[in-house]
Every structure is written in structure tokens, then in C-alpha cells.
């Protein structure tokens, strides 16, 4: 396969036809590949969406969970059947290379499979009661409508992480995608509607898409009918969203900025580390929340490792993400290029890959000490490298940022690896050994600490955020003993 001969706009038009999307409306989508318009969508109505979701909840919460799982199983089938065209649209609208776009749709399929199994495993506890002839249990009930706010960089997978879990947990879903990637959201909704049609009797308003900008997002965030706001994006966005949700005592699940580090220790396999650095620092043009942004390298191996990374950065193929030879596609837009330039100045190397797109070579910036712009998350392929002498110092550097999403260590020394994973080691939600900080599987809980927001999505027991916990005490005796031995007897 090589780069299609047809233009980005023509390819997008063909894909939209294939999905049956009109591509009309007041909101414009542009491809980062060449900056051209590839379609339009219509702005949504937040109040109407919340009303429909609240009505759907009253029905969906009483559908047995394994039956709810059947809907997610059908969604997984639709995603399998349309994996390629959906991935092509992700490439056109988000600028990812085809392999990563296919991987993103695979991540959707994986979470559907996970959620189907989960629909039979929403387990509560049986708890020992201190009172005779009493039984205590804990149950998990559906929570209510869930709002999913997603970012451009994972325009479809992050919705699926949330929607697949929310649906089996008994919650309707409203999706407010990034304004930069509205068409992929429309395509996912087409597949969702096919699954809903095959399912048959799901309530109207169970899964909705509300397109729009900040004001639309704010109206949804403020609506008291939304029980959970699951928001993925920058720390600044989270800082705006979280207090609004808290003010109405709503629940939020935040997956915000990262400033992820990799420690490379003296015993590390340097070639393995260099390959992991290339993928995690430069892949997706540095636009993952899990992107490697800080390399903390031991003095004794710094020179050869940095030289090898420089070589890889200098030769990695940049270009049209539709070309299978390309490893690095464009930045999402001009503003992303400007942000990179503000941070590294004339060290930025722009590449004229496709006219109208913003293509930049990954940059490695060596620093003597951690500080300044290295503490920020700039959504671009900038890797800072700093040297260390002791592991304690390296771990302190790893932790000495305001974000706490992902981290990794390359070492063949068991003691070092375990110290990195221990309580006094990495303070991040994700800590890896001999792999980079990005590219997580769906089976684990995904998210991080500090300014990353504290939320966990995807695997493990992340489903609990989408349900309400209820503690039940049942008395099957003929007395009324009180807890803690309290006496409250009435005269006979
Ligand atoms: C994100 O960038 O918001 O671990 C999510 C990863 C991907 C998900 C990234 N599975 O890099």
C-alpha cells in the first residue's frame, strides 16, 4: 500500500459516504494532513440530550446487566466489521499513522470484549455483621447518565473505554468529542446505531452525541442530570470542569495532563531503551497523554544513549500518515506547532511533508537540571534529557513534577526495578519496567495522580466509578439488636 492518489478531501468524502454521514452543518472539520476541510457536523442540543439520557436511564437501569452486555457485544462486532474504514477516518482527522489508527480501533474492540465479560461480574461483597441473625452485603447499582468529554488525540478509543463500561453498568452515555475530531465521532455513532438496531429494544437516548465547542461542553457539565463527567484533556480543562461538577455534587473522573519520564539505568539494554524512546517520545507526534517527555539517564550510559536517540530522531520517517513508510504524522494544527516553537525556539525543525500540514522533527533537548518548560506538558515531540548519578536522585526527578500519569525504568537490575515500583518509588498511576510509558493495554486501570486528576478508566475495577455503591443490612431474626452494643429499650 502506498499513499492514496486521491486527495485527503476526496478520501474523506468517500469514507463519509460509506458510513452514510451527510457531512453538513455549521462546524467544520479539517484534516491535519493538509489543513483542508474534510466535512462538517451540526451543533448539538445539551438540554435535550440530558433530558433524553435521564429518561433512558429509568429503563436501562432495570435491564439485567448481562443483557446490557449484549449491546456492547454487538458494538464490538460492528467495530470489527468496520475497523479499517474507521481507522482510515481517524488517520484523516487526527493525523495518526494507519497502524496506530488500527490500534486505536482495536483498543475499542478490546474494551468491548472486557465489558461483555464484566457484565456478568459486577460483584459486590458479603460482609460479616456484628449482630446475630443479620446479614450485610454491598451491591452496585447503575449511577445515571455519564458525560464523556474526549480529546483529539484518541478521538474514538477514550469514548469506548467509558461507553463500554457505562453501558454494562446501566448508565446512558452522552459524548462531547473534541471540536477537532467530530467526524470520527459521527462514524462511531453510526456503528453504535447499527448495534442498537440489532439489539432491538434499547431506550431512545441511551447513547447520544452532542457536537460543539466550549459552551456546549459547559452546559453539559453543569446539568444536574449528568451523574458522572468523565473528562480527558489538559490539566487546564480539568481545572475548569472539576469545580463546576463538584459545585453540584456530581461525580467526575479526570484523565488530564502527563509529564512522563523514563529512567535509563547503567544495566539497561540500551538498544531496547532507544527503540522504546523513539516510540514513546516521537510516536503520535508526541501527542499522547502518555508520551515520554523526560529522559532521566545515568551518567555512565548517557553519551551512547543520547547519541543513538539523536540518530533515530534525525532519520525517523515523517510524512503523510497514510503512507505505510511514515512513522510520524503531522501535529494536529498550527497552534500545536506554535506551542512547540514557543518552548524550543529555533531548535524546531519543520518538515515540508505535505503542504498545509504541520510536520515537525522530534527534538531532543539536553538540560543540566530539571526546570522551566520541562515541567510543562507541551503536546509536541519534545524530549528533555537530564543526567543522574544515584537511583534515589532519579526517582526524585521522576516524581518532581506536578503531573503523575505514567513512568518507566529501563534496568536489568531486579533491585532497581522493584525500588522503582515500590511505595517510595514512582508516584505515577502507571509505572513500567523495560517498556516505555505509553501504549497501555485496556486490562489495567488507566489514569494518574496529582494534576493528572486521579481518575481511573478502562480495565481492573475502574467500572466502580460508573456505579453507585449500596450497603444493605438485613435482619432475619426476631430481635432488634443495635450496632456497637447500644441499648434503646422501651419499657415492657
Ligand atoms: C491518551 O493519550 O489520552 O497508553 C490515552 C496509551 C494509550 C492511551 C492513551 N493506550 O498510550
Provide the spatial order of strands within the biggest beta sheet: 14-15-11-10-17-18
Q: Measured on Cα atoms, how large is the radius of gyration?
A: 24 Å
Instruction: State the helicity in percent bands.
Output: 25-40%
Low-confidence stretches: none
Oligomer: single chain
Which ligands occur here? 2-aminohexanedioic acid
- Structural class, please? alpha/beta
Q: Count up the helices.
A: 14
Sheet bearing the most strands, described?
6 strands, parallel
| End-to-end distance | 89 Å
Proportion of beta-strand residues: 15-25%
Question: What's the count of strands?
Answer: 22
Query: What characteristic shape results from the CA principal axes?
Result: globular
Textual characterization of the structure:
The protein has 492 residues and is an alpha/beta fold. Helices cover 38% and strands 19% of the residues. It contains 14 helices and 22 strands. The chain has helices at residues 8-19, 46-60, 65-81, 83-94, 98-118, 157-169, 182-199, 214-222, 235-247, 270-282, 299-315, 334-344, 391-399, 414-421, and strands at 27-30, 37-41, 126-127, 134-142, 146-149, 173-176, 207-209, 228-232, 251-255, 260-264, 292-298, 350-351, 359-360, 363-366, 382-388, 403-404, 406-410, 430-433, 445-446, 449-450, 457-458, 467-475. The strands form seven sheets. A six-stranded parallel sheet has the order 14-15-11-10-17-18, with helices on both faces. Strands 7-6-5-8-9 form a five-stranded parallel sheet, with helices on both faces. Helix 5 runs parallel beside helix 6 (157-169) and helix 10 packs across helix 11. The longest helix is centred in the N-terminal third of the chain and has 21 residues, at 98-118. 52% of the residues are buried. The model has no long low-confidence stretch (mean pLDDT 97). Bound molecules: 2-aminohexanedioic acid. Residues 107, 153-154, 158, 232, 288-290, 438-440 line the site of 2-aminohexanedioic acid.
Amino acid at each position: 500500500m502506498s499513499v492514496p492518489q486521491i486527495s485527503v478531501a476526496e478520501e474523506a468524502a468517500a469514507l463519509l459516504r460509506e458510513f452514510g454521514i451527510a457531512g453538513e452543518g455549521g462546524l467544520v472539520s479539517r484534516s491535519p494532513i493538509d489543513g483542508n476541510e474534510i466535512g462538517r457536523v451540526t451543533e448539538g442540543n445539551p438540554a435535550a440530550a440530558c433530558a433524553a439520557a435521564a429518561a433512558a436511564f429509568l429503563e436501562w437501569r432495570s435491564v439485567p446487566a448481562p443483557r446490557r452486555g449484549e449491546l456492547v457485544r454487538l458494538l464490538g462486532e460492528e467495530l470489527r466489521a468496520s475497523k479499517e474504514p474507521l481507522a482510515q477516518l481517524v488517520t484523516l482527522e487526527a493525523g495518526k499513522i494507519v497502524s496506530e489508527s488500527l490500534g486505536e480501533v482495536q483498543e475499542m474492540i478490546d474494551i468491548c470484549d472486557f465489558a461483555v465479560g464484566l457484565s456478568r461480574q459486577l460483584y459486590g461483597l458479603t460482609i460479616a455483621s456484628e449482630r446475630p441473625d443479620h446479614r450485610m452485603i454491598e451491591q452496585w447499582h447503575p449511577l445515571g447518565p455519564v458525560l464523556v468529554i474526549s480529546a483529539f488525540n484518541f478521538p474514538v478509543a477514550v469514548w469506548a473505554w467509558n461507553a463500554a463500561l457505562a453501558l454494562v453498568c446501566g448508565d446512558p452515555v452522552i459524548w462531547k468529542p473534541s471540536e477537532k475530531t467530530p467526524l470520527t465521532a459521527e462514524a462511531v455513532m453510526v456503528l453504535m446505531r447499527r448495534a442498537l438496531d440489532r439489539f432491538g429494544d434499547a431506550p431512545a437516548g441511551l447513547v447520544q452525541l452532542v457536537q460543539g465547542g466550549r459552551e456546549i461542553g459547559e452546559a453539559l457539565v453543569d446539568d444536574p442530570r449528568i451523574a458522572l463527567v468523565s473528562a480527558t484533556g489538559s490539566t487546564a480543562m480539568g481545572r475548569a470542569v472539576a469545580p463546576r461538577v463538584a459545585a453540584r455534587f456530581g461525580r467526575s473522573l479526570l484523565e488530564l495532563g502527563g509529564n512522563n519520564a523514563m529512567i535509563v539505568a547503567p544495566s539497561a539494554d540500551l538498544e531496547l531503551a532507544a527503540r522504546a524512546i523513539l516510540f514513546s517520545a516521537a510516536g503520535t507526534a508526541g501527542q499522547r497523554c502518555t508520551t515520554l517527555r523526560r529522559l532521566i539517564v545515568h551518567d555512565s550510559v548517557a553519551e551512547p544513549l543520547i547519541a543513538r536517540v539523536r540518530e533515530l530522531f534525525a532519520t525517523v520517517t515523517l510524512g503523510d500518515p497514510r503512507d505505510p513508510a511514515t512513522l510520524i504524522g503531522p501535529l494536529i494544527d498550527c497552534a500545536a506547532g506554535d506551542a512547540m516553537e514557543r518552548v524550543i525556539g529555533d531548535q524546531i525543525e519543520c518538515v515540508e511533508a505535505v503542504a498545509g500540514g504541520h510536520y515537525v522533527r522530534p527534538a531532543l533537548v539536553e538540560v543540566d537540571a530539571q526546570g522551566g518548560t520541562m515541567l510543562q506538558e507541551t503536546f509536541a515531540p519534545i524530549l528533555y534529557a537530564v543526567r543522574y548519578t544515584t537511583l534515589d536522585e532519579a526517582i526524585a526527578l521522576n516524581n518532581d513534577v506536578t503531573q503523575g500519569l505514567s513512568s518507566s525504568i529501563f534496568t536489568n537490575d531486579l533491585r532497581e526495578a522493584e525500588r522503582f515500583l515500590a511505595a517510595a518509588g514512582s508516584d505515577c498511576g502507571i509505572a513500567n519496567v523495560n517498556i516505555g510509558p505509553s501504549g497501555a493495554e485496556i486490562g489495567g486501570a488507566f489514569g494518574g495522580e496529582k494534576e493528572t486528576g486521579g481518575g481511573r478508566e478502562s480495565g481492573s475495577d475502574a467500572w466502580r466509578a460508573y456505579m453507585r455503591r449500596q450497603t444493605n443490612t438485613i435482619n432475619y431474626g426476631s430481635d432488634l439488636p443495635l450496632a456497637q452494643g447500644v441499648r434503646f429499650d422501651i419499657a415492657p
